[in-house]
Design brief:
This protein has 323 residues and is mostly helical. The protein has helices spanning 2-32, 37-48, 51-62, 66-91, 99-119, 126-149, 154-165, 170-202, 206-218, 220-231, 235-260, 267-289, 300-322, and strands spanning 94-95, 123-124, 263-264, 297-298. It is built from 13 helices and 4 strands. The chain is globular and about 50 Å long.
Length: 323
């Protein structure tokens, strides 16, 4: 058990570090190749921060641990909105300016509805996974169009500022891209082995481990980037990372896992985890888009409510293990 705990801790540290290097290298490479900054922010940074979830869920699915794969994806979405947005809003209210991000919020809610429909029969087949990946491809195409058209969007401006502040030569960018990818795969293997071993040792489901320990760990890149962004007053970058990650988790992470190995889904995933994920997405959309607010920001009070929701949800999951 001690070895498994050590493996999880080491895997999480290495996973977060390698994901950060991978995203930095990919963003810098895209910049050198002339990709528009809004597109870099939406596609590479927004989706790239979910690289840990993708690697871990794919590894878990290939090992025949569907609960860990699905719990990691949905648990990360819950963690991103309730814990990260809640914590950041508590530190400083999050103003929403980007028109592109306002379009992504209803999109993420619609994608959550599609995911829920697929869960109704208690399984995610390879066909379901293929559909999710096809929808993800369409969303990527839409993001590329938005990135090419939205040259004056505030989200693009904040991404440009980040790239200028942290310049990277092309050779270094390519090197970090390759190193980050290799270490992502290695650290995910270590983390999945440790998480499954702990679950078996404690007699709990790998779903619970995926929703808690693994979900929090794989969401650390979003947490780190969000805290760094709030210090620089880059609010659209915070929301962009969270929304990009949510779309990626719902479509690509779950889709790839189901394509690798069909996933048997307990109904509690639909009634408890998917429902909370969808309600949180709807709440975030309301907070960001409410018509009657001149500021259109996520307030400290709303951040506190999100944090309390996360604490309550996690406490309930832990109580199911203890009791």
């Amino acid at each position: 058990m001690l070895l498994a705990i050590t493996a999880v801790m080491a895997g999480l540290v290495l996973l977060v570090w390698s994901a950060d290097r991978f995203v930095d290298g990919a963003a810098a490479t895209a910049k050198h190749l002339g990709m528009p900054t809004l597109l870099i922010g939406m596609v590479i940074i927004g989706f790239g921060t979910s690289a840990p979830e993708l690697a871990v869920s794919a590894m878990a699915a290939s090992d025949g641990n569907p609960g860990l794969a699905l719990g990691n994806a949905y648990g990360s979405n819950i963690t991103n909105i309730a814990l990260i947005i809640g914590l950041v809003a508590l530190i400083s209210p999050i103003a929403v300016h980007s028109q592109v991000l306002r379009k992504e919020l209803p999109l993420l809610l619609g994608l959550s509805a599609i995911a829920g429909f697929q869960l109704l029969d208690g399984e995610l087949t390879q066909l379901d996974g293929g559909i999710l990946l096809a929808v993800f491809t369409a969303v990527m195409g839409w993001s590329i169009v938005q990135g090419l058209r939205g040259k004056e969007d505030p989200f693009g401006g904040e991404t440009e500022a980040e790239l200028v502040e942290h310049p990277m030569a092309l050779n270094a960018a390519l090197a970090w891209l390759a190193v980050g990818l290799v270490l992502l795969i290695a650290s995910s293997r270590l983390l999945v082995w440790g998480a499954v071993t702990i679950a078996q040792g404690l007699g709990v489901s790998d779903l619970i481990i995926g929703l808690t320990i693994v979900a929090i760990g794989t969401s650390l890149p979003e947490l780190a980037s969000s805290i760094a962004a709030v210090k620089k007053n880059e609010h659209d970058l915070i929301l962009g990372n969270i929304l990009g990650s949510g779309i990626f988790n719902t479509l690509a992470v779950v889709g790839l896992a189901a394509t690798i190995h069909p996933l048997t889904v307990d109904m509690e995933v639909l009634y408890r985890d998917w429902t909370l994920m969808t309600v949180l997405t709807a709440a975030l959309m309301f907070m960001s888009l409410r018509v009657f607010s001149s500021e259109r920001s996520i307030s400290r009070l709303e951040g506190a409510l999100l944090l309390l929701t996360y604490v309550g949800y996690t406490s309930y999951l832990v109580s199911t293990v203890i009791l």
